[in-house]
Design a protein that fits this description.
The complex is a heterodimer of chains A (about 425) and B (about 325). With about 425 residues, chain A is α/β, with parallel strands linked by helices. Chain A contains 13 helices and 18 strands. Chain A is globular, with a radius of gyration of 20 Å. In chain A, strands 1, 2, 3, 4, 5, 16, 17 and 18 form an eight-stranded mixed sheet that branches. Chain A has a five-stranded parallel sheet with strand order 9-10-13-14-15. A three-stranded parallel sheet of chain A has the order 6-7-8. Chain B has about 325 residues and is an alpha/beta fold. Chain B folds into two domains: about 140 residues, Rossmann fold (3-Layer(aba) Sandwich); about 150 residues, Aspartate/ornithine carbamoyltransferase (Rossmann fold). In chain B, the strands form two sheets. In chain B, strands 7-6-5-8-9 form a five-stranded parallel sheet. A four-stranded parallel sheet of chain B has the order 2-1-3-4. In chain B, helix 1 crosses helix 5, helix 1 crosses helix 12 and helix 2 crosses helix 12. The longest helix of chain B is centred in the last third of the chain and has 19 residues. Chain B starts with about 25 loop residues before the first helix and ends in a 5-residue tail after the last helix. At the A-B interface, helix 6 of A face helix 3 and helix 4 of B.
Chain lengths: ~425, ~325
Amino acid sequence: MSARPVLIRGGRVVDPSQGMDAVVDVLLVDGIVARIGEGLDASAETEVFDASGLVVTPGLVDVHVHLREPGGEHKETIESGARAAVAGGFTSVVAMPNTDPPIDSPATVGYVLAAGLRAGLARVYPSGCITLGQKGEQLTEFGELAAAGAVCVTDDGRPVSSAGVMRMALEYALTFDLPVAVHCEELTLSRGGTMNEGIVATRLGLTGVPNASEDVMIARDLLLAQLTGGRLHVQHVATRGGVEMIRAAKARGVRVTAEASPHHFSLTDEAVEWYRTDAKMNPPLRSAADRDAVREGVRDGTLDVIATDHAPHHYDEKEQAFEDAPNGIVGLETSFGVAFTELVEKGVIDLATLVDRMSCTPARALGLPGGTLRAGAPADVTVIDTRAEWTVDAAKFVSLSRNTPFAGWTLHGRAVRTIVGGATAWSAEAR
Amino acid sequence: MAQAPEQTAPALGKDLLGLEELSRGQILSILDTAERFKEISVRPVKKVPALRNRTIVNAFFENSTRTRVSFEFAEKRMGADTVSISTSGSSVQKGETLVDTARNLEAMGIDMVVIRHSSSGSARFLAERIPSNVINAGDGKHEHPTQGLLDLLTIRDHRGRIEGLKVCIVGDVLHSRVARSNIHGLKRLGAQVAVCGPATLLPAAVAELGVTVFRRIEEAIEWADVLNVLRLQLERMKSGFIPSLREYNRVFGVTRARVEAGPRDLLILHPGPMNRGVEIDSDVADGPHSVILQQVTNGVAVRMAVLYLLSGGRAEQAEAVKQGGDP
């Protein structure tokens, strides 16, 4: 199945992977980037897309999404999640394995892969668990999982509490050069807490999670990455201490990549006021100092990957008293808008750096194809209207879930066309 | 705008969820109304028709004897029709029960709900979803506003004022909704507030609430005019917050020796139920400084006042209501 060639004409191509920021044409043929340059000719059968005034980037990549299938199909399915991804401009996503059952065997990895291919929207890359059943005890068959298509291992949502198990995971992953992605949390410090520890939690009477809960684990895992030489990927860094330790570890050559989530660089724990369950996630929203540190981490590349931690939950599940509601928010459809509005328009980073953090580096961090528009690369392209002003209306989400703290926010920047493998998977006009 | 000749007391909103959101005027209005209503409970016929034909549901999702009974007496003495539900659901089912409870109560056409629930914010959750008045009778670790109000009334009864008093809340502030309501109410009325307890049982950033923190009970007693001694939940020992009840009493217990060594005539409150010999010794609880039973008596008056004011009653008419007039 081969789509018609597509010529994206006259757009501002921002591709940090080749240091490009220029008005050029991009020709996509047979699912790959055929040519990129000025004044490209189109054959008769070529679809010409006039991108003048628009920004053309390598397809956005989100390495941290929960698609909930199998087991949580009332929240999201692989198909609905992959559709939300392309609606948000993402051409590739990495599905977290904390499903029911967890993705800890080659068969379940294959299930996720097949369902993603069947959906035919964003590319869905499975991840596998670090330990069987995410129990933190026995390692999964990394080799088998990788052979079946897993791009990393992670027990996301849960920490690997045993330092010994974590050491062995990092060491064992070396054979397959698999990144080990970690949710850093010391559960005995979190103590069942539901929001950031601080004055807001004290006033609301909610148990707080101290920064140290996250920092202790980040410190441990950085030391273990240094010890083993393993590839560590720290998920959703939310603390100033975490950013500082990762910065220092990178400076001394530890192989570590790290994520910033849009909510952690745009919100603080004050968003929890009135017990808003749509501001409940793990790690929690933290102080303004932490938020600013996450921004600075994105700016200087300490946090080299922006990832949403897209965590859909059904309305009924969030419609509970705060402490009873589950953690997590959806993010795929607001990620670019929040990042552009909060980071680029506020002058934290420029557009090229944003594209780097949302496409090039995430692809590189997990070894995915894409993240570049070099000739020969997969024809994964996102066309963005950075002038578009829009108001977040959760009722219009393509995702099956609506749990967002950004409802009612006015954002700038939105994907108008998302092309995966040369075929248009999302088009704003077609809606 | 012309100044009204006589200042009218500020009305309450739809609900009473916490003292944090009440103004000084609103708190005083409740206390003054409660002061008038105290007399109803000492009559031979303890009943006024102020809430006649009002339907009130007491929804207690967490065990409580004192607070539930106090509300029931208050409601009955004001002439309301009341129903009490006591359910302690499993922690997972709690929230769902709450949504369904809200919808079901709404469908039955009620006027007020008094809710006690183990989740912080649950009273607000309910209040935002039903048109009836909601009274928070304790939500998790958040607030217990009627307890805070009855503590204020009791202190005012004995000291004639709140403003300028030094009040120290002693013990497990971390898990205490009583502490939070006390801090907000006392500060709103101009008291100086302190907390005292082991750091494991004090909330993070508690000083940002504008309170002084004492690490030692002796220092607290040296400073305070009033001690409000919190109940120490016995399970705190098992969860490791304190090593033993014995040591807690040794280090933080409000003992007769400590009270007598203090420089002032202390007033001692306790929201109950007490663990005698743990946070407070019997000879203090039963001694001359203790006003613990008056707190209980005042609880009924405060709850009558809250019910009356939330149902649209005016503080200025409380005296007439007492005589059997319509509100």
